[in-house]
Amino acid sequence: AEQDATGQHKQRLLVVANRLPVSAVRRAEDSWSLDISAGGLVSALLGVKEFETRWIGWAGVNVPDETGQRALAKALAEKRCIPVFLDEEIVHQYYNGYCNNVLWPLFHYLGLPQEDRLATTRSFQSQFDAYKRANQMFADVVSQHYEEGDVVWCHDYHLMFLPKCLKDYNHKMKVGWFLHTPFPSSEIYRTLPSRSELLRSVLAADVVGFHTYDYARHFVSACTRILGFEGTPEGVEDQGKLTRVAAFPIGIDSDRFTRALELPQVQNHVRDLRERFAGRKVMLGVDRLDMIKGIPQKILAFEKFLEENPSWRDKVVLLQIAVPTRTDVPEYQKLTSQVHEIVGRINGRFGTLTAVPIHHLDRSLDFHALCALYAVTDVALITSLRDGMNLVSYEFVACQEQKKGVLILSEFAGAAQSLGAGALLVNPWNITEVANSIGYALNMSPDEREKRHRHNFAHVTTHTAQIWAETFVSELNDTVVEAQLRTRQ
Ligand code: G6P
């Protein structure tokens, strides 16, 4: 075990999330190659120095045989990761079904799936059963590795049933739960058939965290209205047991981006991109290809802008990076074809022999290429219909110290609460408003751009991912101590 500066063993933090921060590729029967993804959570937790972190989650691959499972567990152990093995059927029912087809759309105000609601109540129920079974499998792995004094931090909508499973196993375990998506208004949430069971389970945690104050408030209202529990300024109380509920807005590791911009390979990328798009303003969208991101609406707004501003047609380009995601879920497949159709139509309509107005890519970019792209962008267009936070907006701001480009941001992204004063906020459903904002952004004076950028840059570089993680984890540690003190008195 790791030691701290005084030679003491460090306290351990078990981070439980549906997906481990690695991608695993099988090389042979007993050999795996692993790629650690340096996403938001990973860099946030690298900053939590006083704890020794272990990750527990699904490796994203089906490993039916024991030899493969053993080999993968061994390879993962070197990266401080512990796998939860889920078979194909459970992935289908729990991950594709209940998580991505029920909870995800509901939490983003897209409602429950119609077909399931009308015709296949049994399949809805079997998906929920699989969800609970999967959560119990995560709990079993946590319990096998739990040591007294560990702090357990559960993440996201995949694991709402986990806090209860963990407390059933050991009520002294310190358990936190954080939601990375919005928590919707209780009027939306209460349509969920399993609404009470999930709320009660989450309330078994000691600390429950959300990105914004609004999400926390919606959650407390759901608990008071659906369960009849009491909402207090501290959280939710039932029969003397308090669950702390609060907002902990996440951030990014902004230094990682500002440092990358100094690298020669990134500067080469920047030069290439400048040359490639010389004489044109660059607009950028970077999203997972998900219905919550409002990609069709964004592209239609861009079309409207081109329609109404003929003089801009050969002077602006929209680069849309659409990272494929959850490709087994039919809704996502439909969205892909819909977006391709719209992009094709608009490029056909406004393209010339030598240039098209929209470059749409169905893939992710490596980190350095992404930083370069952020740096050369004049206007970032982030028009999520709903979004827990949206860290792309933070990453863009972190890379704009030179250019001081404009951020057009949906008012329905959590980030609108923190970057609202610097960004142009829009209602993504209002295509005319977004089209007008594009015009305003492209014509904005350098003075105004500077002022807006200063505000956002100051926020992004001070409200970092590390501070987010530290704040949550220390609150989790302290709250439990307080609760124990109270019961002892
Ligand atoms: C959102 C969720 C995460 C999830 C990510 C990627 O950000 O809040 O929990 O990991 O999307 O989605 P995926 O389904 O590929 O894990």
TrEMBL record:
Q: Which GO terms describe its biological process?
A: trehalose biosynthetic process
Question: Would you name any one GO CC term?
Answer: cytosol
Q: What class of enzyme is it?
A: transferase
Per its UniProt entry, which superkingdom is the organism in? Eukaryota
UniProt keyword annotation of Nuclease present: no
Query: What EC designation does it have?
Result: 2.4.1.15
What does the UniProt keyword field contain?
Glycosyltransferase, Transferase
Report which reactions are catalysed by this protein.
Answer: D-glucose 6-phosphate + UDP-alpha-D-glucose = alpha,alpha-trehalose 6-phosphate + UDP + H(+)
Q: Which GO terms describe its molecular function?
A: alpha,alpha-trehalose-phosphate synthase (UDP-forming) activity; trehalose-phosphatase activity
Q: Does the keyword Ion transport apply?
A: no
Q: In which family does this protein belong, per the annotation?
A: In the C-terminal section; belongs to the trehalose phosphatase family.
What is the protein name given in its UniProt record? alpha,alpha-trehalose-phosphate synthase (UDP-forming)
Q: Which organism is it from?
A: Spirodela intermedia (Intermediate duckweed)
What taxonomic lineage is listed for the species of origin? Eukaryota, Viridiplantae, Streptophyta, Embryophyta, Tracheophyta
